[in-house]
Amino acid sequence: MANFSGAIKLTDLNDFIAPSQACTVALNGSKLETNIQDGEVLLHKRAEVPGFSQTLPSGPNGSVKVTLHDCLACSGCVTSAETVLLEHQSTEELSERLADPSISVIVSVSPQSLASLSVELGKTIEATFKKLSGFLRSLGVLYVLDTVDSRDLSLLETASEFVARYRAQHGQNGSGKPPAKRHGQLLQLASACPGWVCYAEKTHGDYILPYISTAKSPQAVIGSIVKGPLCKRLGIQPGKVYHCTIMPCYDKKLEASREDFTTPGEQVPETDCVLTTEEVLQLASQKGIDLALLPEDHLDNVLHSAEEKRLYGWPGGSGGYLQFVMRVAAQELFGHSLPPGSLPMRTLRNADFQETVLEIDGREVLRFAQAYGFRNIQTVMRQVKQNTCRYHYVEIMACPSGCLNGGGQIKPHGDQAVGELLHALDKQYHDVPMRTPSSNPMVDVLYRDWVGGFPYSEAAQSLLHTQYHNRGQTSKPAQAIARDW
Ligand code: SF4
Q1: Could you say which of 377, 397, 413 is where a domain stops?
Q2: Is the CB of 399 under 6 A from ligand 1?
């Protein structure tokens, strides 16, 4: 197995795993050719250019061998085309907007990023958020929000969509869209991970896209809230608000650039900039600030009532989609209440591929899986194509170990093992009060005052759902690919 530590950053995964497609990727100035053999990627060194100093370990015929598990494990991968987009989402860009008095900057922070920062600072997640809020406001940020409410909306929409599709499939007063199904059985795939969605759009196209939930991700939902009801309440034009999110991966920058995530009519991006967790730490360092030493400031309560703002969690480091959809489906479809706490999961091929089954009166009624990392995604794709997939719902995430292990998270220090860091992240992430999305009072307010409808209603579908595009394999120039996003 090749050891690529340090100097090589592998690029867009989709290019690597395109069946039978030889492609060229740029790695630190050197060009490599790729092709696929039995689920492995062979990288062939093609041309040396000045500045490339990595010595590539050689396999037979001078090839360099990387297993899919190795190269697809990095969600920080970007193509040269995608770099065009990423340059516009940086700490420098944020600083420029902060210096512009005509622009109001609002920042939304993901719970995975807070977990990573809190482990780094050695503080609780709540204390970390308070320090970070104070730091960002000291730079001129107007409000610092979190993505708990938007995650809850995303979970509710995903679960309601599943129930509607299941009912439509089984002729139970279904008002949902025609269900995506194979073998006469419903299949819904998670939609919150842009790494996975990008791969599905470019590599599997129309065959797989109908299976993907149309519910927007938490980032997309908070973008809609900020540029919609929040701008309205603040009396600021959406174009005068610069919305920046802090996320665990670079793929979220690409998601923010999708043409689907712009304000209705005005076509203003709902999220203008995404910074990774690590970039936020760099921003503090650029400003000469040690976040750990800052006092704890207040949390902004702009979306909430007078009650003190608190962080609430839900089981599952990648948002907890499987956990929530299974609970809602069990209750709504079968009148079956699942006990509180995390659902029992059975490990399949590896720790990143697990399943849970709901049996009622000895009969299996639902089978859900979570498949993290491209090795396991490939397995699910193969099952769907061969009509052997037995799952009703699959929580698919591009990163092995899910979002807590995103490519933009703060890396282990020294000889700290990745597993040890992930354990600490998981502990911090879940070290807040747990609350079901449906008992979040802000969710009721948003459905009533903004959406004007209930979960998966027509109004909710127009505001909280999206669509996908078959982008096919492409050899378009960088700017053209950037426009596709
Ligand atoms: S699994 Fe999570 S962190 Fe990784 S690419 Fe997907 S959304 Fe980003």
Answers
A1: 413
A2: yes
Indicate whether residue 397 lines ligand 1 (CB < 6 A): yes
Residues with Cβ within 8 Å of 67's Cβ and at least 6 positions away in sequence, in order, are 1, 39, 40, 41
Distance 127 CA to ligand 1 centre (A): 25
Lowest mean pLDDT among 76-85, 178-187, 314-323: 76-85
Q: Are residues 173 and 66 part of one domain?
A: no
Is residue 209 domain-shared with residue 64, that is, in the same domain? no
Residue 384: phi, psi to the nearest 5?
-65, -45
> Is residue 441 domain-resident?
no
What is the C-alpha to C-alpha distance for residues 172 and 164, in angstroms, rounded to an integer? 9
Say yes or no to pLDDT of 210 above 70.
Answer: yes
User: 264 falls in which pLDDT band (50, 70, 90)?
Assistant: confident
Domain count, the chain: 2
For residue 398 and ligand 1, the question of a CB distance below 6 A is answered with: yes
Is residue 395 in contact with ligand 1, taking CB distance under 6 Å?
Answer: no
Which range has the worst mean pLDDT, 146-155, 182-191, 279-288, 374-383? 182-191
In terms of phi and psi (left: phi > 0; alpha: psi -120 to 50; beta: otherwise), the region of 28 is: left
Whether residue 207 sits in one domain with residue 333 = yes
Per residue in 239-253, pLDDT (tens digit) is 999 999 999 999 999
Task: Note whether 66 and 185 are same-domain residues.
Answer: no
Each residue's pLDDT tens digit, 308-342: 678 999 999 999 999 999 999 999 999 999 999 99
Integer angstrom CA distances of residue 141 from 81, 95, 137 = 30, 10, 4
Among the listed residues 275, 364, 291, 255, the one whose alpha carbon sits nearest the alpha carbon of residue 130? 291
Q: Is 403 in the pocket of ligand 1 (CB under 6 A)?
A: yes
Mean pLDDT of the chain: 83
Identify whether 457 is part of a domain.
no
Residue nearest atom 5 of ligand 1, based on CA coordinates: 195
Expressed in angstroms and rounded, the spacing between residue 402 Cα and the centre of ligand 1 is 6
Q: Report if residue 130 sits inside a domain.
A: no
Task: Classify the phi-psi angles of 406: left when phi > 0, otherwise alpha if psi is within -120 to 50, otherwise beta.
Answer: beta
> Which numbered atom of ligand 1 lies nearest the CA of 404?
3
| Of the candidate ranges 11-15, 115-119, 191-195, 222-226, the one whose mean pLDDT is the lowest | 11-15
CA 396 – CA 75 distance, rounded (Å) = 14
| CB of 195 sitting under 6 A from ligand 1 | yes
Domain that holds residue 39: 13-71
**pLDDT value of residue 170:** 84
Atom of ligand 1 nearest to the CA of 196: 6
Ligand 1 pocket mutation, candidates 275, 376, 403, criterion most atoms within 8 A of CB: 403
320 lies in the same domain as 211? yes
Centre of ligand 1 from the C-alpha of residue 312, in Å: 20
d(CA 475, ligand 1 centre) in Å = 25
| CATH number, domain containing residue 205 | 3.40.950.10
> Do residues 194 and 319 share a domain?
yes
Q: Say which DSSP state 215 is in.
A: B
Percent of the chain with pLDDT over 70: 76
> Are 322 and 202 in the same domain?
yes
Q: Does residue 75's CB lie within 6 angstroms of at least one atom of ligand 1?
A: yes
For residue 135, being part of any structural domain is answered with no
